[in-house]
Amino acid sequence: MVDVNLSEAEKTFIVHGIQDNFREDGRSNEEYRQMDLETGLMSNTSGSARLRLANTEILVGVKAELEEPKPEKPDVGRLEFFVDCSANAAPEFEGRGGEELATEMMNLLYRAYSASTVLDVSSLCLQSGKLCWVLYVDVLLLECGGNLFDAASIAVKAALFNTKIPSVKVRQEEGEETELEVSDDPYDVRRLDVSAAPTVLTLSKIGHNHIVDASQKEEACCLARLMMAVTASGSVTATVKEGRGSLDPDSITEMMQVGKRVGKAVNEKLLETLKEEEQKGLKRKTVGFLR
Amino acid sequence: MPDTRRITGPEETQSPFAFCPQFLAQSAEAFSDGKRRDGRKAEADHRPVFLKAGLISQAKGSAFAELDKTKVVCAVYGPHEVARREDFSMQGQISCEVKFAPFSCRVRRQHVQDGREKDLSTQLLEALEPAVRLDSFPKSQVDVFVTVLENDGSALSAAITCASLALADAGIEMYDLVVACTARIHGTSILVDPSFSEENLKTVSGEKPGGQVTLGFMPSLRQVSALCYHGDTDLDVLSQATQRCQDTCHKLYQVVQDTLVKSVEQRMNNS
Amino acid sequence: MEVMETSTNSPCLAALTCVLGDLSQADGSASFTHGNTSVLAATYGPCEVRMSKEILDQATVEVVCKPRVGLPNCADKYRERHIRDLFQATILVNLHPRSSVMIVLQERQDDGGLLATSINAACLALLDAGVSMKFLVAAVTALIDKDGNINLVPEEKPSDVEASASLTIVFNEKDLQVMGVTSSGKFSQEQYDRSVSLCRKATEHVFKFYRESMERKLSKSV
Amino acid sequence: MAAPMVKVPGQRLARKDETTKPGTGTYEQNGFIYSSLAGCVQKETSSDGSVQISVITDVQQTVVPSVEAIVTARITNVTPRFCKCSILTVGKIPLKEPFRGMIRKEDVRATEKDKVETYKCFRPGDIVVARVLSLGDSQSYLLTTAENELGVVIATSEAGASLVPISWCKMQCPRTLAEEFRKVARVQQEFLQYTDT
Amino acid sequence: MAAHMDRIVLPGDKISDLKESETSKKVVLGPGLRTETEDVYACKPGVLKFKEPNVYWIDTHQKRYVPVKGEHVIGIVTQKAGDIFRVDIGGSDQASLSYLSFEGSTKRNRPDVKVGDIVYSRLLVANKDMEPEVVCIDSHGRSSGMGVIRSGGFLFKTSLNLVRKMCNPQCVLMKSLGNKFPFEVMVGMNGRIWVKGRTNKETVALANAVCAAEHMTNPQIKAMCHRLADALAGFE
Amino acid sequence: MADEVRTAQPKEFYRKYLEQGVRPDNRELGEFRPTVLDIGSKNGSCISTAEGSALIRLGNTIVICGIKGELAEPKTETPTEGYLVPNVELSAVCSPQFRPGPPSEQAQVLSQFVANVLKNSQCVELEDLCIAPGKMVWVLYADLICLDYDGNVADACVLALTAALSNTSLPVVRVDEETGKTETDFKEEKKIQLTCTPISATSAIFEDNVLLVDPTRQEEELSTGLVTVVTDGKNICSLEKPGGSPLKDQQMRLCIERAFQRHTEACNLITQSQGSTLSTLTSPLVDR
């Protein structure tokens, strides 16, 4: 992560704060910061979402393309993730600086969405071996305020929820020429069922305790993090330990319990806000980047 | 862009396996008549492990690990200077690179490092960094290069164990050796040290698709240095699998220590 | 910028023509044509060397072979290595330590014997640049066809008999010893010995051609 | 002592108390001394009776130039203000990959620091013995030869023969008898037989 | 002996029958000649020259300058690094020029030298092991013509042979141009020449005359200068 | 003291040895390093996922060769010829001088050398690789990975490649004309026939007169030239001397003789280890 240099005194101050479950910005160890989410703000994408978690800003765009499926998985569509750390997020992202963090994020997203039950990709396949939908998910990191993995995964889930795939009819004539007919009616679209999609929850171990949604300062004094992808139903689709330090086994199980509980809560709250935003329909004005 | 730095064959080629019917229909059941597909009886049976330290003359330290058909070679270089580095730090650095040989898997792999190899390299770095005393070589860097010669399942755990043996053989100061183990969750059974076919078992329809967890463990300090899992299971099945991996790591620890002791003794009496 | 013509008095060595010094920015340049194979060579040096390639007690010789069309591939790298090792042993490299002598060879037309023509072009360019060398080197390519007789490439009248092997041999002028060899196709040891003697005789013409071109160039500026 | 016991990293050696102290190749964690290298255990009882446990590896020394260490280096390039060199061995242990070092003009000799002409002290290709002054910057280590025992040990003359030291600042080529200026290391007696091959 | 002289040699040619001087029984080998197990070989292509009593050397046609101690060169200041300037003299390394090596410069009153200035200087240190060093003062500390060239004029690059030919006393180029119209000229042994005529037209004419003179004999040079002077006069 | 001299002045260190005609690892000038070859157990090759593989240890130098077969359309101008694509990978594992990333100049030169040897020796008839003329042919990717670079990687690569090709077996692929459907049958296997076995012998020229066969890495660095001769028993398949110090004719004859001797030595080594039942890959990798 982009670490801000802290002196030893500041680090001990943060660690002591966490020990009595009262962090420097007043939150308890398992509380998220203020998050506001907006979907459907970019016209030329099939689906998009912008998430601002305190001062972490992430923009996700999903483009649906018709392509040939992979030879070894002929009857399934697929998701392709791409993460770009733009240089205006942090000076060291300039050039190839942000590549390492971007690959880490991409690997985690691929892991989280690797299980077949997470997102029904078989329905994305139009003609086995010949034609299927490929969803290109592009994550753009605009500002780093700590806890980038959680924010990115939530924004990805929101963007997938907001994705509208035009319905396509395939007519198979006698000759093997397949006839594709894409409807241009904006309402005749198919939506993705993201109820089983996971969101990532990062538990940072500081001292002997672990906290959720660590700010940039808290991330600087944490040696090991456990990132878990949790679905609304509470099942775990990916876990990765990241960071230079090591964790002892029992604290891992403890962290997993907390992760599951908080993860379920985050998922439910997210689905609620998405549905609520959907109801407002076209009346709601998009705030975008004005604020 | 044609790869002008290598001899190139035709543009697009297909693997012969794509046209072979019985390979496409992967079977779903893990146990056939009481035994695992490669003859191991219990779920917790680990394949016979063969380890050897100090086989590459050019490397500072090296090791070779063989889990029945999975063969991994690791070489450690350094500590040497870091080429271009502006920040001056009293802590040493480790850089890891995992590479699959083009002939290591059934379907031929490309020479250029793809996403999966980058992922394994990061996981290897995660596993080794906590175990190495970085302050013992300030301002310099240790390189760990792993080549997977043949991949018959749990390549990552073989790479981690082999790399930590190579680091010890290189005389790099370490808090503890790192031993790793992989487990495949398939329905209710937890298969330790899965082979390649067990890694790609088809999910039984209706059940949860299970998953695969790899654990990097420092047995004498009882610390987990790496944990990576993907799939879709409940939490308790996952922590059960992690526990099963931990017990196997304790068993493996003994084998790694004996190999290291044997190689030090052998070097002592012929030097 | 005069053009040097030589009569084809050697048994079957094609016509050699060369223009010295026609690139103004290069320290030395030679556009050399042997039969229908033509190469433009330019040399820069001794000049600045990159830190990574610097050798502390001698000059680094760098060779770049540019094919006529497309990107350089492994075959060009292979030719580059041959020519670099040859001139590393020919140029007096310890006179200019920690510097580099750069030779750039642009293939203009290839009708067989490209490596030999490149070597001769590079040697002429080094002469034009006045780089100090132990001796001169010249290369000739010999073609061995199925029934074993040998002729030199690129011949004037390309025979239609399909060749079974080809040998490019480099000789130095001082004691006409073999400096470098590269081969393709199969051939016996006896065929190798015959090709060496034939090529040795042919290189005398090439050395004579070097002398004539330099005399032509230097006679003007006395 | 029985055949020296071979220990591997992570193995517990002893309980830490005032008498036993961790030596090289070991580390101390919550009350116990653990081995951090794969090698044989050595127990030295120092004067005040306390035992120092250390683990020594026979050949695979991991050595990094540390401050005050004596190193052998080859001079790679000489400029008026400093000489760049590549460190070949630290103490007695040859390094598999050389480290970059630098000797500044003012660290060449102890006397008349400012009138030092680096060309008259070192030439590229000389083998020098120097002491590590500091870890320097991220590019190279800082070395000094400002002692009588430090300086040029092996140098080749223009004619290619190896030079013989004749004074602290001059060496002579046995073949052409030409003298060349160098900052010569005053080599102790037992080394002399090897340098005049 | 005469057949020996002015003969064209190529690298690798053995030079036998060298005339030792009566007094010191030694032969002085100049640039381009090399001894190997006591016989002499040429290592550069060019014309073998001989000067009494026993000096041999090869005059090569070369564009790339190899620094030689004591030669005057024209350099271009490329960089200011601390208390030295980096000067490009056309060789393989950039030469260093200390700010103290200007006439009348001390620690406090530093010379006004900017990047891009042209400097006429002399090579103090030049051998294959060391970085070349140039200075702008002679042994008595006076500039004697050396230093930063400020007053306009035109700098151009030629081959080293032309420069040696111009510095040769028998060459008539300088004299014949001189009595046509007044001009200033500075010749660097590294193949760089700086000329300044009264008007720009004359400066350009001068530069072309010098470049053209490379392959001319003395009479041809005189004829060329006449033509040049008439052409200039005719235009006025 | 020997270590100090060896690192500070390697050339003198070697010259002292060579004066007595022996080398620091007490081999004569014309003696190859001990060579161990593992072509794997009878049924499979030492790498089960590859169609053919071999591992060779030449002194300390280790090279492993794996051959993978893939299917592709043939070139239009040669409809009945398959492809044989060799590549040498000097990975960062084998020596500190190689960095991970695109192949170094030396790796490209070695790949081209091995490709030339295969083309010149025609040891594999490209027509044998044809399945359906014009439609489908075999592409044999021969990937050679150097695991330990201690000099003379060229000889090790050629021997490893020849050994791997000698035990490569390809599944039978049938393309029925009408439906154009292809079908691979892994039970039946067809071994590739080699017309000849090219073997290479490299000598390093030291101080312009001494010829050291099978040079180690240090001898390669100190040598002033390399000569590589590849023979197939009767004829010379490839003769490579890339520049370096000149070579007298009878020295070249000596190199060619050494190559023919090496050819007989290497052939029995291949036949010996052909039927060997070395179960694990360990023994050649392991016994130092």
TrEMBL record, chain C:
Keywords: Exosome, Nucleus, rRNA processing
Residue ranges constituting the Exoribonuclease phosphorolytic domain according to the UniProt record: 16-131
Transmembrane segments: none
UniProt cross-references to PANTHER family, sorted A to Z: EXOSOME COMPLEX COMPONENT (PTHR11953), EXOSOME COMPLEX COMPONENT RRP46 (PTHR11953:SF1)
GO cellular component: cytoplasmic exosome (RNase complex); nuclear exosome (RNase complex); nucleolus
Coiled-coil boundaries: none
Protein name, UniProt field: Exoribonuclease phosphorolytic domain-containing protein
One Pfam family matching this protein: RNase_PH
UniProt subcellular location: Nucleus
Family stated for the protein in its record: Belongs to the RNase PH family.
Protein's GO biological process: nuclear mRNA surveillance; poly(A)-dependent snoRNA 3'-end processing; rRNA catabolic process; rRNA processing; U4 snRNA 3'-end processing
GO molecular function, one term: RNA binding
UniProtKB/TrEMBL annotation, chain D:
Chain segments carrying region Disordered: 1-27
Cross-referenced InterPro entries: Csl4, EXOSC1_C, Exosome_cplx_N_dom, NA-bd_OB-fold
Keywords on record: Cytoplasm, Exosome
UniProt main location, coarse: nucleus
GO MF term set: RNA binding
Species this chain originates from: Littorina saxatilis
Taxonomic classification: Eukaryota, Metazoa, Spiralia, Lophotrochozoa, Mollusca
UniProt GO BP: RNA processing
GO cellular component: cytoplasm; nuclear exosome (RNase complex); nucleolus
Cell location: Nucleus, Nucleolus
Protein name: Exosome complex component CSL4
Top-level taxon in the UniProt lineage: Eukaryota
Residue ranges constituting the Exosome complex component N-terminal domain according to the UniProt record: 8-43
Record-annotated Exosome complex component CSL4 C-terminal domain positions: 95-135
CDD domains referenced in this protein's UniProt entry, alphabetically: S1_CSL4 (cd05791)
Gene3D superfamilies: 2.40.50.100, Nucleic acid-binding proteins
Automatic annotation (TrEMBL), chain E:
Domain Exosome complex exonuclease Rrp40 N-terminal: 27-64
InterPro entries for the chain: Exosome_RNA_bind1/RRP40/RRP4, KH_dom_type_1, KH_dom_type_1_sf, NA-bd_OB-fold, RRP40_KH-I, Rrp40_N_euk, Rrp40_S1
A GO MF term: RNA binding
Stretches assigned to the K Homology domain: 153-200
Pfam families xrefs: KH_6, Rrp40_N, RRP40_S1
Gene Ontology biological process: CUT catabolic process; exonucleolytic trimming to generate mature 3'-end of 5.8S rRNA from tricistronic rRNA transcript (SSU-rRNA, 5.8S rRNA, LSU-rRNA); nuclear polyadenylation-dependent rRNA catabolic process; poly(A)-dependent snoRNA 3'-end processing; regulation of gene expression; TRAMP-dependent tRNA surveillance pathway; U4 snRNA 3'-end processing
Localization of this protein: Cytoplasm; Nucleus, Nucleolus
Keyword annotations: Cytoplasm, Exosome, Nucleus, RNA-binding, rRNA processing
Leader sequence segment: none
Any one Gene Ontology cellular component term annotated for this protein: nuclear exosome (RNase complex)
Keyword Cell membrane (UniProt): no
Top-level taxon of origin: Eukaryota
Family in the record: Belongs to the RRP40 family.
Listed PANTHER family: EXOSOME COMPLEX COMPONENT RRP40 (PTHR21321:SF1), PNAS-3 RELATED (PTHR21321)
Name recorded for this polypeptide: Exosome complex component RRP40
Organism: Littorina saxatilis
From TrEMBL, chain F:
Biological process according to GO: exonucleolytic trimming to generate mature 3'-end of 5.8S rRNA from tricistronic rRNA transcript (SSU-rRNA, 5.8S rRNA, LSU-rRNA); nuclear mRNA surveillance; nuclear polyadenylation-dependent rRNA catabolic process; rRNA catabolic process; TRAMP-dependent tRNA surveillance pathway; U1 snRNA 3'-end processing; U4 snRNA 3'-end processing; U5 snRNA 3'-end processing
Residues in Exoribonuclease phosphorolytic domain copies: 42-171, 197-261
Pfam families: RNase_PH (PF01138), RNase_PH_C (PF03725)
CC per GO annotation: cytoplasmic exosome (RNase complex); nuclear exosome (RNase complex); nucleolus
Main location: cytoplasm
Protein name: Ribosomal RNA-processing protein 43
Cross-referenced PANTHER family: EXOSOME COMPLEX COMPONENT RRP43, EXOSOME COMPLEX EXONUCLEASE RIBOSOMAL RNA PROCESSING PROTEIN
Keywords in alphabetical order: Cytoplasm, Exosome, Nucleus, RNA-binding, rRNA processing
Top-level lineage group: Eukaryota
GO molecular function, one term: mRNA 3'-UTR AU-rich region binding
Presence of the UniProt keyword Nucleus in the record: yes
Location of the protein in the cell: Cytoplasm; Nucleus, Nucleolus
Record-linked Gene3D superfamilies: GHMP Kinase, N-terminal domain
Matching InterPro entries: ExoRNase_PH_dom1, ExoRNase_PH_dom2, ExoRNase_PH_dom2_sf, Exosome_comp_Rrp42_subfam, PNPase/RNase_PH_dom_sf, Ribosomal_Su5_D2-typ_SF, Rrp43
The family this protein is said to belong to: Belongs to the RNase PH family.
The keyword rRNA-binding is assigned to this record: no
